[in-house]
Amino acid sequence: MTRALAAEERVTGDLFAPFRLGELKLPHRIVMAPMTRRRAAAGKLPTDIMARHYAQRAGAALIVSESIEIDTTSAPEPPTRPALVTESQVEAWRRVTAAVHAAGGRIFAQISHMGRTSPPSQLPAGDWPVGPSAIAAEGTVYTAQGPQPYVVPRQLTFPEIAGLVERFGAASARAREAGFDGVEIHGANGYLIDQFLRDGSNRREDAYGGSPEARARFVIEVIEAVRAHWPEPRVGLRLSPTNGFQGMSDSDPAGNFGCIVARLNGLGLAYLHVVEQPVQPEGAPEVARRLRRIFRGPLIRAGGYGRATAAAAIAAGEADLVAFGQAFIANPDLPERLRRGLPLAAADRATFYAGGPKGYVDYPALADAARSDDRAGRTA
Length: 380
Hints:
With 380 residues, this protein is of the alpha/beta class. It contains 13 helices and 14 strands. The protein has a single domain, classed as TIM Barrel. The strands form four sheets. Strands 3-4-5-10-11-12-13-14 form an eight-stranded parallel barrel, surrounded by four helices. Strands 1-2 form a two-stranded antiparallel ribbon. The longest helix is centred in the middle third of the chain and has 20 residues, at 158-177. Residues 1-12 and 372-380 have low confidence and may be disordered.
């Protein structure tokens, strides 16, 4: 069961206060958000530089891994996204989790399915992208051949939906074998679960579509399948009710997601992770605060936070933890920099998905930068 948080746990006013997340004792409230970086090798295998990258950032209260695929796809030339389908992938992920644990960190695996946004070129021969309805995403998808327009997906059948639920469960079992500390189910940013949840992409008229409660059926089945392999409260869920990425939309995000999240209480989630800016653009709905009042477990907020806005969210009781994304790219020891109020290094966007070590493992930590400056001073 999801444990209701006492008032003193919800409002501490301190971004750097410890927090208990189920059985995990977190040293502060700064989470590393999941970020796709496309550093996996052919075969969607995690690499040694991925282990180094995550270990460098083990000072996070919790690391949520990049999106890890739960379904069989072809093996495009690297750089690509990693998966958790084969034993060789499990073994490769063991090296990543071992490196994080050796550095004193904690890491959850974010498991996902791209649904309608899957590139046809990366699917097994004869397969086609699938979704809750035959509605294409907007924009283009990254492929080894460059950006390609999204295609109209094939609507999933009941047996196919059941098969996907089983694959989410199987991937969560492999995540446990690989040494992860828990699993985050990716229900945000236009991926398959998000496609089911929002009525802009789900026009079904059966048990998986129509009302918010029916659109929540798929994610609830996935949660139950995943938790079968994680009896402790070690399963989180990420949602993005107002994110329009990949053409996602909903007619009433506050009302619909309020109904959906109410159904999550009692499912034993370790946390709910909501993507929404601390201050929404004028006219945009504010959903995260509503979900905070509805969900009875720990809440992580993400979406362009800085030190001041993150501390304010904790102080106001709007979040228990705050996830940082791009700031962790160029600042591997981000929590310490935030604690000391130091300036943050800027990330090189050109290297976000470029593959290789540049812009991935070569950003210096504070101690490394100080040693470099000291050496430069001695040789001047």
